[in-house]
Amino acid sequence: MDRRSFLRNSAVAGAALAAPSLISSRSRAADILKLGCLFSSSGTMANIEGRLNSVVQMAAAELNAKGGVLGKQVEVMVTDPASDWPLYAQMGRQLLLQDQCSALFGCWTSVSRKSVLPVVEQNNGLLYYPLHFEGEENSKNVVYLNSPPASSVLPALEYLMSPDGGEAKRFFMLGSDYVWPRTINKICKGYWESKGFDESSWREHYVPFGFSNFQTLVNEIRQFASEPGGQPIIVLTVVGSSIPDFFKEIINQGIGATDIPVLGLDVLEADLEGLDTAPMVGHLNCWAYLQNAEAPANDAFKDNWKSFVEKGNLPYSPDTVIDPMVSAYDGVHLWAKAVEKAGMADPDAVRAASAGLSFDCPSGYSIKMTDENNYVSRGVFIGSVNDQQAFDILWQSEDTPKPVPFSPYA
Amino acid sequence: MRDLVSLALRPLTQPGGLARFWRGLGAVTMLIVASANPVLAQAPVQKRVLGELCAKGVSNQVKGITNLLASVDAGQVDPSWGVEIFQALGDRALICGGDTPLIVSEDTVRLATTLEPTKRSPEKKQGAFVNLRLRSQLDMGVAILRLLSEPGGPTSAADLEQLRKRAEIAPVALIERAVAMPGNEAVAEGLRDILAVAALEDPDPAQRISAIKRLAEAPSARNLTLLLNLRDGLSDAEDGAIKGELSSGINKIRFWLEVGEVSATIYSGLSYASILFMAALGLAVIFGLMGVINLAQGELIMIGAYVTFLVQEALKVVAPGLLEYYLLLAIPFAFVVTAGVGVTMEVTVIRHLYRRPLMTLLATWAISLFLINATRVVFGTQNLEFVVPGFLSGGVHLFADFIVTWNRLFAICFALVVLGGALFVLRYTKLGMFIRAVTENRDMAGCVGVSVRRVDMVAFGIGSGLAGLAGLALSPIYTVNPGMGASFIVDAFMIVVLGGVGSLIGTAAAALGIGMINVIIEPLYGAVAAKVIVLLMIIVFIQFRPEGLIAIKGRR
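Predict the joint structure of the above. Result:
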């Protein structure tokens, strides 16, 4: 055999060997549906955001146990954008174009969502976003699973300004420096103006991501609180590891909830892990789900999570569940229902099929996708920190108010 | 020991001792019955108050609190009973509903009216939710009743602080009684300050003037607000003496507030500097003295914090009595374990890359990722829970709103001690001499017989151990999780480069400078701008003085 015929023969043989594997990989791709996850498991958001990867996997496992979606198995592709906002866009593009994911689940901070937004819009993807956020956005390529301010922040503020909430009259806004805190604070200021307050009754401060040295700021808060004008509160929009550091500092400086209540808009059960919450009792938060929600669906969800963590030996607390986890879980199920209804996983078909879908959320409410946009009607909870590193339910809404994407106060 | 036993048995063994013993017991029983009796007789008052506290609606409950305090004032109920009830309500342990309210704790159920144990089972596991309005009333109520029921007790200072915060709603009559009680001498002055708040509205001008004087003696922003409000409310017809006293009082408070503000800024600066310094110290040895760019420095800090956590957990099992001192007991462990990790890194990886700094950078970065993820796998991502020892929780109010928080004071002192220790080792020990020799001229030191490899290894170990100590010192202030190290690495390099590579004193000076500048800028332009301005200042500084604050002569 001369050299040329050897090359030709081996090329033919190689092609023959490769062909079945090509065919089989294509046929394999036909009977699975891929979901992409964009949640950081490193960087400043790691502690809380990382859990969402696992909860999406848990929901997918539930779907697969029931025979999958449209008879196809659901596979979850996990990435780690490392709390680096531009990396979310890059990995999102990769998930959509290279891995051919049917839908993306991802982002915690609004800045990461804004970074992925052009990617999903260009490639006509679908991003399920599980955090409550500042609103002021209505993309056909994003499903906003959680509440805009009108059905989360404003009811909580209203409570704090009522006699039972201590008749708050002065407001110290402290946030991380990015779009969510700034927009939320803008809406808050508009809201207070509509209630007859003026600029002298609030103060606004921003800190960089991952900021931890709150001593000077807490000094200023104490000063602000002792000035005349009525009961002060803190509207806290710092995120990630800054949250526990802030609480440590106010505890050490002797500030309790009865002195200056903190409305922690991004404070979750998971942020209280590692803190002695006895001196924090009474501080507030507001979400569309709290771990202590009383509903059979919630007990089932908590049990599922516990066994999922223990079985997979995951590095997360088995006894802590948080709103964004539940929202992401709801999202996977809403997506599955829409795909079943549409009969295919094409984003346009899924979006059309989504209108009006409802799902029994672990919060105890039957949540519903609206007809006119990609928002979801959720229940409203106001929580109050208790001494067991969790939140007592202080107030919850009768039903699920209709989400208002654009605030009149912004 | 035998002496003790015989002492205890003396009443029984002495002639006639048994009779005296029984008589004594009888007297004690009588006393108990006598003190219980009035409570039983006045049960209707308790019942009425409890009814109000159990009522729906916060306004009704607030009325119940006021009425309970009033009946204490009238001598109808015992203050200690009120303390129990208020605390139970606040802890959600008071279960209403059923025919009589119950107080539940982990293993006992008591009747709320008499506080006697009962066999009844409560209808619910938890009492009603307590909102902020009710909670502040309860805090106030507990504080004043505790001062009345156990004058001079261990909680009296905290109770005084509570009442100070809620001077406007505290009942004057009860405070007056607490002032008069023997045992409360230590807090009497503070209580009189609270009474002065009420006396500001007194019709008698003399009373008002003395109240103003008293408030001015205890300068705080709160008192300033009170006096300013009073001044704004004064009519022109008011007594000139009051106005004069008021304006001099306001000026006095303003002066002290400014002094307090300056002190607070200096203290914040010191505390921030101590944190920066601790984070940078290990790197000052490793990068400064040895020239190794160690990107895993932050993770060594994290390991120090995790070792501290493990020591705490071990103490919980082995010697719970020593748990209070775990931070001090963990010092050798944090140092040795982290130093061990550092030495391992040096021997296995870094040693082979001393002449290739770029590769060291990549290799140490890989090590840092490895350490973070290994920790995540072993411990999980959640923040670790540290017991806050009594001597580190809270702070002391020095004057005029200036609070010294113990955890930060601990960090400052710890940083000073570690700086002293490190300087001592480098300057006055043989090892220190070798390290300095290798720093100044590696090849020459080798020529005169210094074992350069061993010195490298030990110096790397010391640098890592110091990072471990930083982790220990930071654990009461910052959150501890696998990713915590990343936030320190940039600051640490910044400090070391600014301070002058190779100089510990320079590192300390740079930390102090950056800490101070930061806290001065922060209130003026915000934390984000502070960071930008500080970085700009460093860039400009390095342009003109690339060797840093304190330059060490040496050949590299």
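Chain A touches chain B through 63 residues (CB under 8 Å).
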